[in-house]
Design goal:
The complex is a heterodimer of chains A (424) and B (170). Chain A is mostly helical. Chain A folds into two domains: 72 residues, no CATH class; 311 residues, Cytochrome-c3 Hydrogenase, chain B, CATH 1.10.645.10. Chain A contains 19 helices and eight strands. In chain A, the strands form three sheets. Chain A has a three-stranded antiparallel sheet with strand order 1-2-3. A three-stranded antiparallel sheet of chain A has the order 6-7-8. In chain A, strands 4-5 form a two-stranded antiparallel ribbon. In chain A, helix 8 packs antiparallel against helix 13. Chain B has 170 residues and is α/β, with parallel strands linked by helices. Chain B has one domain: 2-Layer Sandwich (Beta Polymerase, domain 2), CATH 3.30.460. In chain B, a hairpin with an 8-residue loop joins strand 3 and strand 4. The longest helix of chain B is centred in the first third of the chain and has 14 residues. The chains are: A mainly alpha (424), B alpha/beta (170). Chains A and B meet through helix 1, helix 3, strand 6, strand 7 and strand 8 of A and strand 3, strand 4 and helix 3 of B.
Chain lengths: 424, 170
């Protein structure tokens, strides 16, 4: 028994040494001495492990089945979005925002557009505001559906996964109806929307919000009181509110510890102050509490969508400020000024004033913020994405400590990471 | 500017020689690098800024003094406020005290800054690259780091380009 353990150990020790060779102050011990002496086992999980929800690598130190320490290694999906955005004009850079958190495309668009609108004092017409809210909430539901499906799949509840994807498809059809794309829509633009939604939009959304409550009840019937599901989730990965705050955890993970912090309520944007909705919280802070919070959030999103549909006003969907928003095609043929604006906007781009802003919105995973700095040129000088997954990911080693490897799979699911969001 | 910001500025301007700037309603403190740890401690303990929302940097190359600005953004759930801190840093290889002891999630933010900008953090427990591979050379988000591209190999110049193409070394 001794020999194979040592072999595994030696192989991975090599990795540890290589990983740390870049530190400022030499070798930083990442694992305990027991791993070096061969008492515990070092195991590599990922980056191709199906339960890591993408390309996440975890270096585990195991004592039998028990996790002693867990060292996440991220960056396999790094696409250099921040660097690439610096060489594109503001409007062109927006397509990259869809690719950050690929389950919250419209939420990323919204954050970026809000930042530009804050930087340039650009107005957004009321109709565009309401459609933005409807689509972002649909996006939140679709993101939570994927989370629920994959999370249940990790716990071996296969059918929930299929049901969730069935409903998500309806949402993607609505996105396709609006923008022609299922996922990477880039539908929100600085100053409003790309174009108005088609007439079928309202019927499609109404049909969806009519069927979803029954479907959510169906998922709950499968999981909430299911003893197998409860054994796997109750008391697993308990997070205390103080620890969560210290680690900067936001979103449903923070709300499951009893802190009702939601940016839609705390610092409303896009007219969220006009809607009546609750911020679901739980006190327990374990995996089961996080499940209940997220399921309840889907119901609250439906409430918001219903109210938004009731008040959906008529009118333009994009600002009339020609310094930032290109004129419609019909104007270009008749107005010299419109032609000049069109030419300037598509060759040079618009020029916001010098300065920097930070805008944060509530994404399905937590606080999604963008830091945008302008140096008075048509390209952003610096864009930094404060992504919720990157911050929430740091809590994983804390949660995993002392749990079994099988529970680690559940914990990765409950943090709800999107690797595109972590690596950017 | 509201009352909270007024009391913060009253407490900090004298003690730490801070400066306050405001743009589009966002308030930022400008600080010297030596004071960052004590200011964060004061903001967390006395003013209830419990959450480190983000920590990032901007490179102003070719300027040298300051070349970088480090930006911290703290959020207070109790007061529902957000405040920014900007710390100017000089030179090509700057370093600044780490705030991981105060906010635990500064850990990865600071690793990212080391990775992307080459800014050192004194007292950081585990300063490795976080996003780029461990053997990567250079710090990609610096302004003097080119965007980079890969030469496209066609049939007529395949070998020619193949010779000067960098491959992963064993």
């Amino acid at each position: 028994m001794d020999k194979p353990t040592k072999q595994v150990m030696n192989m991975d020790n090599d990795i540890v040494t290589k990983l740390s060779s870049d530190t400022l102050d030499g070798f930083t011990p990442l694992v305990t001495d027991r791993a070096i002496s061969g008492e515990t086992v070092l195991l590599n999980m990922g980056p191709q492990h199906p339960s890591t929800h993408g390309v996440l690598r975890l270096l585990l130190e195991l004592d039998g089945e028990q996790v002693i320490s867990c060292i996440p290694d991220v960056g396999f999906l790094h696409t250099g979005i921040e660097k690439n955005m610096e060489v594109k004009t503001y409007e062109k850079a927006e397509v990259m925002t869809d690719r950050l958190d690929y389950l919250n495309n419209l939420g990323n668009n919204l954050t970026y557009c809000l930042a530009i609108e804050k930087l340039t004092d650009l107005d957004v017409p009321p109709r565009a505001q309401v459609i933005r809210v409807i689509l972002t909430e649909l996006q939140r539901i679709s993101s939570h559906l994927i989370w629920l499906g994959t999370h249940a799949l990790d716990i071996a509840a296969m059918s929930v996964f299929l049901y969730c994807f069935r409903e998500r498809e309806i949402i993607l059809d609505i996105f396709e109806l609006c923008s022609g794309q299922r996922m990477m829509t880039t539908f929100f633009r600085p100053g409003g929307l790309w174009r108005d939604v088609p007439v079928e939009f309202e019927t499609a959304v109404r049909k969806f919000i009519k069927i979803l409550p029954a479907r959510i009840n169906e998922y709950e019937r499968l999981l909430t009181k299911n003893p197998m599901f409860k054994i796997r989730t109750v008391g697993i990965g308990v997070l205390k509110p103080q620890v969560a705050l210290n680690y900067g955890v936001t979103g449903p993970m923070l709300r499951a510890t009893g802190i009702a912090h939601d940016l839609r309520k705390a610092q409303p944007y896009s007219g969220y102050e006009l809607y009546d909705f609750d911020v679901p919280t739980r006190e327990e802070g374990d995996t089961y509490a996080r499940y209940l919070v997220r399921v309840e959030e889907m119901r609250q999103s439906l409430r918001i969508i219903e109210q938004a549909l009731e008040k959906l006003p008529l009118g333009p969907v994009r600002s009339n400020n020609r310094k930032y928003v290109p004129p419609p095609r019909s104007e270009i043929g008749t107005s010299m000024e419109a032609l000049i604006h069109h030419f300037k906007l598509w060759t040079e781009g618009f020029v916001p004033p010098k300065g920097s802003v930070y805008v944060a919105t509530e994404s399905p995973r937590g606080e999604l913020g963008v830091y945008l700095e302008s140096d008075g040129s048509p390209k952003p000088y610096r864009v930094h994405w404060r992504t919720p997954s990157f911050t929430n990911m740091q809590i994983l080693p804390v949660l995993a400590k002392g749990h079994l490897v099988a529970d680690l799979v559940v914990l990765i699911g409950t943090v709800d990471i999107v690797l595109g969001d972590v690596d950017r | 500017m509201n009352e909270l910001i007024d009391s913060i500025s009253a407490a900090l301007i004298q003690q730490f020689n801070a400066e306050i700037i405001e743009f589009q309603g966002e308030v930022s403190l400008v600080l010297q690098p030596d004071h960052i740890v004590s200011v964060c401690q004061v903001l967390k303990d006395d003013f209830h800024f419990e959450l480190l929302a983000e920590e990032t940097a901007v490179d102003y190359w070719p300027e040298q003094a300051p070349r970088f600005h480090i930006i911290y953004r703290l959020r207070s759930l109790k007061h529902n406020e957000i405040i920014g801190i900007r710390v100017p840093l000089d030179g090509n290889a700057p370093s600044i005290p780490s705030i991981t002891a105060i906010y635990a999630n500064a850990n990865w933010f600071e690793r990212e800054l080391w990775d992307m900008f080459g800014i050192g953090f004194k007292g950081h427990p585990d300063l490795r690259r976080v996003i780029m591979p461990y053997d990567w050379e250079g710090h990609p988000l610096r302004k003097d780091y080119p965007l980079g591209y890969e030469e496209v190999q066609f049939t007529f110049n395949f070998d020619q380009i193949d010779v000067r193409k960098p491959y992963a070394q064993e």
